[in-house]
Design goal:
Shape: globular
Radius of gyration: 21 Å
Number of domains: 1
Largest sheet: 7 strands, mixed
Helix content: 25-40%
CATH superfamily: Alkaline Phosphatase, subunit A
Strand order of the largest sheet: 1-11-7-2-6-4-5
């Protein structure tokens, strides 16, 4: 049976696998490849083995993605799911454009999505554009915290069923999977809880009554997971252990999908990309959760991109530069040989080497423009963006506030000015998303 090349994308990072059919010199690297896009909600790179974490949270992903596929300075456009997902699916800050699945569908791809995310229910038309098969949880499929009840096991089972029974082996396909599990409240299945939960403190992740009583006693209006000072060190160790357990559970389930890809002889025809929508605060600056700032802890994301048969599509120098979640769409189109020039994408293909890559994140009234090791923050006021601070950044942290001077500062300032119209529109979109989340009681 003839198999067309495939691309698999995981949103929490990028993977790249080689194509069984060699491309012409100077042509696309993986023409007609299938695409599997996997995004993992709230996944921090520094809690993954492939990024150096010392706990065995991601053994399947660690084995599947070589170091040559790991981007160490990837940034999300927003610290919250709604805007972040719209933007990486469109390659633009403005989601009212032609999304990746629609572009691929028009090019002859089968398109399918299996999604665990309660926030998409009210905006199905926005997220489902271009998908022939759209499998989202039902509106009533939420738990006592008003979060999704479709767990990783169900996402993987449905994805494997689609691969096995619904896909046409004579057509390339695009499959997007979104896993919700690492999102709070952290409540992993027993097998993974036993492996990572230190067993100290109350059962905080289960919405324990004691937590809410403590919060009420301190007359706080925020949800329990935003208030660090009600926890002692045992509580914090337990919460972080439960978060790790959720990641390990998802890793196991993603491994099932990757195994199914292998069983169907698609590995040599498939590019796999893994990315997260945003990061997560685990007690940093006295807070838990996300959707609050564009600081590194909330916007630094895993970014893994493995292309079949090619161990070093992306140079080490590029993989250490700043890249954006907006770069997913142009990179995929570039790999499979679909022209994207008319789409006016805000992202930039990772096949374009060279210095001077920047990333922009926007949330509430704050805009951040970052290079590999520096970040410039400003406050959006009308058409102006007033500089707040200039910082040196590391892996998920801000290391030092710097004087607003020097060539790097000037380069970021120039990039901000060059993107003036873009960051104004991005701020408007962030404000719209924030109002929607506040209406749901999701954030303040």
């Amino acid at each position: 049976m003839h198999h067309l090349p495939s691309i698999v994308i995981l949103v929490t990072g990028f993977l790249a696998v080689g194509c069984s059919r060699p491309s012409d010199p100077g042509g696309p690297l993986c023409p007609d490849c299938n695409i599997v896009m996997i995004s993992i909600d709230t996944l921090r790179p520094d809690h993954m083995g492939v990024y150096g974490y010392d706990r065995p949270t991601t053994p399947h992903l660690d084995a599947y993605f070589p170091q040559s596929s790991v981007f160490t300075r990837a940034t999300s456009t927003a610290p919250c799911t709604r805007p972040a997902v719209k933007q990486f699916l469109n390659g633009r800050f403005d989601p009212l454009s032609t999304p990746l699945p629609l572009v691929l569908s028009l090019a002859g791809y089968q398109t399918a999505a299996v999604v665990s995310q309660h926030q998409f229910v009210k905006e199905v038309a926005t997220y489902s554009r271009g998908f022939d098969h759209w499998d989202l949880q039902a509106e009533e499929e939420v738990d006592q915290h008003r979060m999704t009840r479709r767990h990783a096991r169900q996402v993987s089972r449905r994805a494997i069923t689609w691969l096995d029974r619904s896909r046409d082996p004579e057509q390339p396909f695009f499959l997007w999977l979104h896993y919700f599990d690492p999102h709070d409240p952290y409540n992993p299945p027993p097998r993974w809880r036993r492996a990572f939960d230190p067993g100290e403190g109350p059962r905080l992740a289960d919405g324990d009554r004691r937590v809410h009583q403590l919060a009420a006693r301190r007359e706080r209006s925020m949800l329990w997971f935003l208030i660090d000072d009600i926890f002692d060190e045992a509580d914090r160790r337990r919460l972080r252990g439960l978060y790790d357990a959720e990641i390990a559970f998802v890793d196991h389930q993603v491994g099932r999908v990757l195994e199914a890809v292998g069983e169907q002889d698609l590995v040599e025809d498939t590019i796999v990309v893994l990315i997260a929508d945003h990061g997560e605060r685990l007690g940093e600056e006295g807070a838990w959760d996300h959707c609050y700032t564009v600081e590194e802890v909330e916007t630094w994301i895993p970014f893994l991109f493995r292309v079949p048969g090619r161990t070093s599509v992306f140079s080490k120098q590029l993989r250490q530069q700043r890249v954006s979640s907006l770069d997913v769409m142009p990179t995929l189109l570039d790999l499979v040989g679909i022209p994207g020039g008319q789409l006016a994408l805000d992202g930039r293909s990772l096949l374009e080497e060279g210095e001077g890559r920047f990333a922009m994140s926007v949330w509430r009234d704050t805009v951040a423009v970052s290079s590999t090791d520096h970040k410039l923050y400003c406050s959006q006021v009308g058409d102006d963006c007033l500089v707040e601070r200039f910082v040196r950044i590391g892996d998920g942290v801000e290391e030092q506030t710097l004087p607003a001077t020097g060539p790097t500062y000037q380069a970021l300032l120039s990039e901000l000015e060059a993107r003036r119209g873009l960051h104004i529109r991005a701020s408007e979109i962030a404000e719209e998303s924030l109002k929607q989340l506040q209406a749901l009681g999701y954030t303040e």
